Amino acid sequence: MGTHKTRTTSYHPQSDRMAECFNQTLERYLAKVVEKRQRDWDRHTQPFLLSYRIAVHESTSVTPALTKFGRELRLPADLITGIPPDAPRSITDYGNDLRNKINDIYEHVRQTGQQTSEKMKTRYDRKMNNKGFDEGCVVTQSSSQRREIS
Question: Read out DSSP for the chain?
Answer without folding.
Answer: ----PPP-BTTBGGG-HHHHHHHHHHHHHHHHHS-TT---GGGGHHHHHHHHHHSPPTTTSS-HHHHHHSSPPPPHHHHHHTPPPPPP--HHHHHHHHHHHHHHHHHHHHHHHHHHHHHHHHHHHHH-------TT--------PPPPP-
